[in-house]
């Protein structure tokens, strides 16, 4: 049995394996308990080990590198076309192995433990921010039912909630007043936890050279810089800046038929969290940067005159992503005057 490519369909408890020989024929099938997979890979002669980029795949990929294997991680979206007829775990493993042999396949770079730690920090922060948003929306609904309208904005709501908890009002029953007090306390705890994570992110960004160079780009701060490095590392898996922008879903979606190309809204593929951060960063360049004489802000101002503000924000985010790719891959600092010809 000469396995050249091993496809692994990772499951929570059971993994399905399919091995291909040099001609691409299936010569091996097996099902293993998840906890026995590393022992099997340890005894397997060096080969290509293909997996979908899902939970635990990066850990297994790092183990494969240590044992001399060639791990290849792929997006499940790219594996789906290779599944034959009815879907099951064994055919999924075979499809993964076959997809890994395609010369045009795009592979996911294996993340280091430091990248995964940083990514986990961002995911914990995003969960807390989502919890805070849900809490505020629920509190607004409760107060609206009692005829109390609070102005827009998180900070406005927090101040009003703290005032109601401290002073009370005749519009709220004792039960509702107790609930509002509890909400104010919970909101304060969430704010403290988010602030602690933000402080940690800023401290990490100050100690990393790549992140420091990224933060020189207008619109990119510690949050975007750390999230980008956690997701793409040095950016070497992307051939050009447009590839990174496309991976972030910041390029138009195409509907081409009969030789006629039609571009519609952005694809919104890839990392939703990073795309959101880049668009927020782009809005700061469009509206909040005071120096409007630099080439990039002049370009943004011209774009705002020609297009809707949301279209301009996405275009600015696209350009920021391309500049970030160049800064990461070339190891150079941001050069503002490089855009003077635009």
List the helices and strands and how they pair.
Blueprint: E1 5-9, E2 14-20, E3 26-33, H1 37-43, E4 48-52, H2 57-66, E5 70-74, H3 76-79, H4 89-100, E6 107-108, H5 113-145, H6 154-167, H7 174-206, H8 209-214, H9 222-232, H10 241-247, E7 252-257, E8 260-266, H11 272-287, H12 295-306, H13 309-330
Parallel strand pairs: 1-4, 4-5
Antiparallel strand pairs: 1-2, 2-3, 5-6, 7-8
Helix pairs in contact: 5-7, 5-9, 6-7, 7-9, 9-11, 10-13, 11-13
Q: How would you describe the overall organization of this protein?
A:
- There is one protein chain.
- The strands form two sheets. This protein has a six-stranded mixed β-sheet, sandwiched between helices. Strands 7-8 form a two-stranded antiparallel sheet.
- It is an alpha/beta fold and 342 residues long.
- The protein has helices at residues 37-43, 57-66, 76-79, 89-100, 113-145, 154-167, 174-206, 209-214, 222-232, 241-247, 272-287, 295-306, 309-330; strands at 5-9, 14-20, 26-33, 48-52, 70-74, 107-108, 252-257, 260-266.
- The chain has three domains: 5-108, 2-Layer Sandwich (Nucleotidyltransferase, domain 5); 113-206; 215-339, no CATH class.
- This is IS110 family transposase.
- Residues 212-286 form the Transposase IS116/IS110/IS902 C-terminal domain.
- GO terms for molecular function: DNA binding; transposase activity.
- InterPro entries: Transp_IS110-like_N, Transpos_IS110, Transposase_20.
- Residues 6-143 form the Transposase IS110-like N-terminal domain.
